[in-house]
Amino acid sequence: MSIELPKTYNPEEAENKIYKLWEESGFFSPEGLPSVTLAKEGKIPEPKPFTILMPPINENGSLHAGHALVLTIEDIMIRYKRMRGHQTLWLPGLDHAGFETQVVYEKQLEKEGRSRFQMEPGQLYDEILNFTLANKKDIEGQIKKMGASCDWTREKFTLDPDIVQTVYQTFKKMADDNFVYRGEKIVNWCPKHQTTLSDLETTDVEQKDNFYYLQYGPFVIATARPETKFGDKYVVMHPGDKRYRGYKDGQKIELEWINGPITATIVKDEAVDMTFGTGVMTITPWHDAVDFDIAERHKLEREQIIDFRGKLLPIAGEFAGMPISKARPLIVEKLKSKGLLVKIDEDYKHVVKKCYKCESIIEPQVREQWFLKMKQLAEPAIKAIENGEIKFIPEHYKKISLHWLKNILDWPISRQIVWGIPIPAWHHEPKCVPRPGKEKEIKKCLKTVIALEEPRCEFCEAKFIRDPDTFDTWFSSGQWPFASLGYPDSNDYKTFFPTDVMETGGDIIFFWVARMIMLSLYVTGEVPFKTVYLHGLVLDAKGRKMSKSKGNVINPLNLLEKYGTDALRMGLVIGNTPGTSLALAEDKIKGQKHFANKLWNIARYVLMNISGISTLKPEIKAELTAEDEKIVSELGALVKDATEDMDQFRFYLAAEKIYHYVWHTFADKIIEESKTKLASEDVIIKASAQRMLLEVLITSLKLLHPFMPFVTEEIYSNLAIKNKRLLIVEKWPD
RNA sequence: GGGCACAUAGCUCAAUUGGUUAGAGCGUCGCAUUCACAUUGCGAAGGUUCCCUGUUCGAGUCAGGGUGUGCCCACCA
User: Fold this and answer.
1) How far is the CA of A728 from the C1' of B35 (A)?
2) Which of A196, A298, A437, A722 is a good FRET partner for A678, with 20 to 30 A between their CA atoms?
3) Protein-contacted bases of chain B (C-beta within 7 A)
4) Which domains are delineated in chain A?
5) In which band, very low, low, confident or very high, does the pLDDT at A1 lie, cut at 50, 70 and 90?
6) What number is the ipTM of this complex?
7) Among residues of chain A, what percentage have pLDDT more than 90?
8) What's the CA gap between A709 and A701, in Å, rounded?
9) How far apart are CA A670 and CA A34, in angstroms?
10) Which residues make Cβ contacts (< 8 Å) with residue A484, sequence separation at least 6?
């Protein structure tokens, strides 16, 4: 066999061809695997399943470096386990990514001079749906470019009807179990996006502002936000503060305030820090979480000062209708002219919450929202983690998860956006229309009902209005592990759940990982996965976070084209320890392109020199010279070592060791030394060298295949070996 | 205020959980090249493993303290 291979490896040509070959082979699906077929014929024992669910990928853009890393690591695991004979399932998922996608689409609308607030919700939904569908093919194509050997026949989308059904059933079950409540509580409100956000969806930003000391009757109070103070009629101090001993809880005082005289009430509460400011504060329960709690404790009234667009309401008098930024200096001016401004501290550092998407300042607002009680949901998760039912890689994420779960707060799950799963709830019209003879019972009318169809009230003919809100995306994606596998009746659920490994970014451990654990335990009674592998961020070459504004975003698709998928994958995995951020330097990937070519030329050399040898006999070792046998057994040591690393999720080490062996042992030593052996007059020495070279090549290809699937498969396809299968399903060496 | 990490060659990172002389990639410098590969080979320079104290036969690794950096959580008006 003397096949002429070109002098350099051409990734682009090989990759498209090879991926098609794999797809057509059926080996991406568990039922198509040789190990499963052989087991069916009774020839080998039933293989063990090995399952990974791909974290659903946003359909609102194109693949970024983080996605490339996820796909690489997961593909390495799946390919390794597939070669070990497992019944492997890697289920691909696409994400509607609720709020994220709506934000992206709103930006596009903005560019076109349109706004979601001038659109019918139905129309907006349809447009976003079309937008994501248009992106779907691109994203799928990009996932394939990465070489991902996932089962496309099982591809799931987070808005698939069966997923939505599962989410509804979970919500209903939670409502029945009294884990859901609808409450008027203070929430994080983004005035730009016009929706509630969970605490995780806000970021804290430290900034310097003016701190105003104001005369409030006999007291001096301090505030950074004078524009919220119009309705302040409670003045709060610590019950133990001796300076204010003369004032009693509930005492009324008359005083002159911004827009005229008011009556204020003294409140004593321990939440007040005596050492901060003057030790006295007035409260604005509608727009501040601490104040809200104080008002709840003392059953105080609350009033909205700022509307949901961030403009002042009529209570602000002459300032009504103004946005905060415009009103604040004018209000300060008025306070000053009335002699109520005591002093201004211009150097006041404090933390403000901002929307994590648009950086608008969050305006706390009181709104009726759906909440989940989290304490009871968290308990089984805490137990499971403490018992070691879930293994964290790296380990310190165990502590981080437990800390969060033990301090968990209730979760607001309703969002005022259209792009998502509608909340299956209905609200009674304000007015009751009693049915004949039921006039006396209308007090029993249900205000809110959780149901898929419009409910009918027994006592009343009033209509029910559909709740306009959608679920927080993470509420549905938290159910992904069992929902995507067809809980509760499907064979896939029975076979592949709980899954083996959840591999995702450490930055979404609370958003997603913790919630999957809680929701899976609640619905199925089982943990969703046995191992959590968390990778770090992919940073630029200088270790900075990639961002569009910095202009340092590395597009993996460009790297693919330039250096080939295998090179990108190696560049992403070598030196990347779990949990640690990875600085992605282009030179590193370039170096791996050289490696792919090195491997290619190793194969060329071997092929050129082994004519006549087309198969490896099992008793190969008997035919080797002692020297060659030593080479083969040394390779055996590498195999053992690398296998151990693979089993322990040390892919970065395995890849580096194999790389180093192939280049600096196989190419630099074994091949160099083989040149004299092949030139030998001694037939035994020559034949031994030939067999040894082929053996080392085949084993190297197998070891490299999970990392560099394309070039290895391409080379393997050029070897003439009897009973050869595609490398993707060949047996991992032992 | 609380929590979690990190600090090793010029740069980016390893060192498989305490074990020879701390390694690799990239970069730098020198030499070689009719060879499967210039996308090459051989070689060199480059280290107080942040600092201090301790445990140990033995510490980059463990403990205590310090310095610096990053991230997460939290309701100081």
Assistant:
1) 33
2) A722
3) 3-6, 11-17, 24-27, 36-42, 72-77
4) 11-161+473-567 (3.40.50.620), 195-365 (3.90.740.10), 585-729 (1.10.730.10)
5) very low
6) 0.93
7) 74
8) 9
9) 34
10) A53, A91, A93, A156, A163
